[in-house]
Design a protein that fits this description.
157 residues, alpha+beta, Nuclear Transport Factor 2, Chain: A, six-stranded mixed β-sheet, 4 helices, 27% helix, 37% strand, NTF2-like_dom_sf, DUF4440, DUF4440 domain-containing protein
Length: 157
């Protein structure tokens, strides 16, 4: 609840709301350095803000669910939503960012580990390899989101 004193100063609840609004606005700020994309993704994921995550992707971006299984659009959003629904925060650390002209390759390790409300232990981890592109507006977005990254297909290929 936000209340104001006679001097017009906001109480703690109002300041918290302003801080939350500022944090959410930061999730939508343009990305000028591709190395910043993974951290922004992690913050949006942990905030369970699918709209902020969508903002980080090109409209035609694809996501690799498993080697050989690629989705885009609503399929990509559904895959992301299913992981966010676990309610377990993600940790992500970037190993390498390689930039050439308007393309970037980001290699990073991610971990989603914890216990769901029903007591089920969850562990998803891997080394992602993502391709990003600088748009005509000068801002970077994911073009290929590949969480399985270095995993091999079930048939070993």
């Amino acid at each position: 609840m936000t209340t104001q004193t006679e001097t017009g100063a906001e109480t703690e609840a109002g300041a918290e709301s302003a801080a939350d609004a500022a944090d959410r606005a930061a999730l939508f700020a343009p990305v000028d350095d591709p190395a910043d994309l993974p951290g922004r993704f992690m913050r949006a994921f942990n905030a369970r803000d699918l709209q902020a995550i969508d903002h980080l992707f090109e409209p035609g971006c694809v996501r690799v669910l498993t080697p050989g299984n690629v989705v885009s659009g609503d399929g990509r959003r559904a895959a992301t939503s299913s992981f966010m629904a676990l309610g377990i925060p993600m940790r992500l650390s970037v190993r390498h960012t390689y930039v050439y002209d308007d393309l970037a390759l980001i290699i990073g390790d991610y971990l989603i580990e914890g216990t769901k409300p029903d007591g089920t232990h969850v562990l998803h981890q891997g080394t992602a390899t993502d391709v990003c592109r600088r748009g005509a507006d000068g801002h970077w977005r994911y073009a290929i989101d590949n969480p399985p990254g270095t995993d091999r297909a079930a048939d070993g290929s």
